[in-house]
Automatic annotation (TrEMBL):
Residues 15-362 form the Enoyl reductase (ER) domain. PROSITE patterns: ADH_ZINC. The lineage of its organism: Bacteria, Bacillati, Actinomycetota, Actinomycetes, Streptosporangiales. This is NAD(P)-dependent alcohol dehydrogenase. InterPro entries: ADH-like_C, ADH-like_N, ADH_Zn_CS, ER, GroES-like_sf, NAD(P)-bd_dom_sf. Its cofactor is Zn(2+). Belongs to the zinc-containing alcohol dehydrogenase family. Keywords: Metal-binding, NAD, Oxidoreductase, Zinc.
Length: 364
């Protein structure tokens, strides 16, 4: 079928809206008509020079929409279902079978390369040029996308489907990192570094968990204002001096039990670890840093640094939970969203890079 898609042809090129021929869904695949798709920081990996993301490519990995067709062998999904598209996983490895699909050994191959494992192109231009369309098992910067039964999550029909895409990655990562991976409980303390979509979702989740101290750190005062509204008990501008010392003071001198970094800025990560009390845990979800340098003495005293992928969530169970929290007015993720037509994707990218908006959602 013919679709419209935002194609990235080079790391330093603008997106171009192009007409592509998309294959019919194959075994285990699902065709989704996209109602909205979030732009996530991970999509910026396509901007890194080199061969990590092969071009030309359709990015986008926070799609939501309606099922238009299913391939052979698909069960649990039907034409007309409302769905959120999340990350892909193999479903057969030990980690997938133990409810840790984010740690699937095939995570990179299935999500980061945008190339089908069988090597068969799913999309081509009118003159037969292959365009890669398996970014996070979906490539949803488009009018339609192919997903799999592993990463297409059915949701209720009575919620605004065009707004749900960010639940598939960024919002899920922030919320599940707090609620599942770190396991924040009532009365705990946490410092959250970076108040973008991931960090603000973490703030919301910390409030849901009943954390007594929730410190948000960011460089943008407008985002710190949002953090206050979403449940932060304290906010700090990251440009201030001695952030770790301020956090220790806020938490009674010992430091917080948990810290969470979504920035991947090495200096910020060091501060996040230094903000912990002994036995504290720092969760890292940021993408892009080559290395971190940490004070070994902090770790020897019992602190833990933990890498987290997609919040250690199982999308098929966690996405519906976030929707239910939203229904209860306890998880207002929709307030993070600014919508753009798909053909304004370059403006959306500029606005999110500058910090003007928190979570762009593109509407085909």
């Amino acid at each position: 079928m013919q679709i419209n898609a935002a194609v990235l042809r080079a790391a330093d090129a603008p997106y171009t809206i192009e007409s592509l021929d998309l294959a019919d869904p194959g075994p285990g695949e699902v065709l989704v008509k996209i109602a909205g798709t979030g732009m996530c920081h991970t999509d910026m990996l396509g901007r890194i020079p080199g061969d990590l993301v092969t071009k030309p490519v359709v990015l986008g990995h926070e799609g939501s929409g309606l099922v238009e067709a299913v391939g052979p062998g698909v069960t649990g999904l039907a034409v007309g279902d409302h769905v959120v598209m999340s990350f892909d996983s193999c479903g057969t490895c030990d980690n997938c079978r133990s409810a840790q699909p984010g740690a699937c050994p095939e995570m990179t191959a299935l999500n980061m390369l945008a190339i089908p494992l069988d090597g068969r192109p799913r999309a081509t231009t009118g003159d037969g040029e292959a365009v890669h369309t398996r970014w996070f098992g979906q490539s949803s910067f488009a009018s339609h996308a192919l997903g799999t039964v592993r990463n297409v999550v059915p949701v209720s029909r009575d919620v605004p489907i065009e707004q749900l895409g960010p639940l598939g990655c960024g919002v899920q990562t922030g919320a599940a990192s707090v609620l599942i991976s770190l396991g924040v409980r009532a009365g705990d303390s946490i410092a959250i570094f970076g108040a973008g979509a991931v960090g603000l979702a973490a703030v919301m989740a910390a409030r849901v968990a009943g954390a007594a101290v929730i410190v948000a750190v960011d460089l943008h005062e407008s985002r710190l204002d949002l953090a206050r509204e979403f449940g932060a008990t304290h906010v700090l501008n990251g440009a201030d001096d001695d952030i770790a010392g301020q956090i220790r003071a806020i938490s009674g001198g010992e430091g917080v039990q948990y810290s969470f970094d979504s920035t991947a800025v090495p200096e910020v990560v060091s501060t996040a670890v230094a903000s912990l009390r002994t036995t504290g845990v720092c969760g890292l979800v940021g993408v892009g840093a080559a290395e971190y340098r940490l004070d070994a003495n902090l770790l020897l005293m019992g602190r833990t640094v933990k890498g987290i992928i997609e919040g250690d969530a199982v999308p098929h169970t966690f996405i519906p939970k976030m929707i239910e929290l939203w229904r209860q007015d306890r998880f207002p993720f929709d307030r993070l969203i600014t919508t753009y037509p798909l053909d304004q994707i370059n403006q959306a990218e500029a606005d999110t890079t500058s910090g003007k908006v928190v979570k762009p959602v593109l509407i085909p």
